[in-house]
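Q: What structure does this chain adopt?
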Amino acid sequence: MLDSLTGGLISDAVVIALLGLIVKIWPRGLSALATWLYSHVDPGHLPYDSDMNRHWRQTSELRRQTEQVQDQLREIRKDTIKNTLVNLMEQPGDQSSKVRYELSKLESLDAHCWVMQEAEDYLAQHHRKGRS
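A:
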């Protein structure tokens, strides 16, 4: 890689010295360089049993597990809001503002269920009562 980077014009030692100088002048340069190098690594070209390949496998597995947990938490949030809506609609009196608030939370989660339709009907019904 360094040969293609330098194009054969300067030696590898000069490139390393330049990188050292840049890091000395720009203290956060080392972490920026490491991030840049890491982002350009193709895991398909790494030896199977290398430390870097194991790291890529663990990272992808952790990413998959994190997505699963986030999906489950999202479903739990939706269920909690649905239960709150049902309880609010069963309470006596006008709970329109609370129902509207909970309904907006469900809409922000892109939930589509019967509870949302019932809440909208509840709001429409109580809006008509307020006008009468």
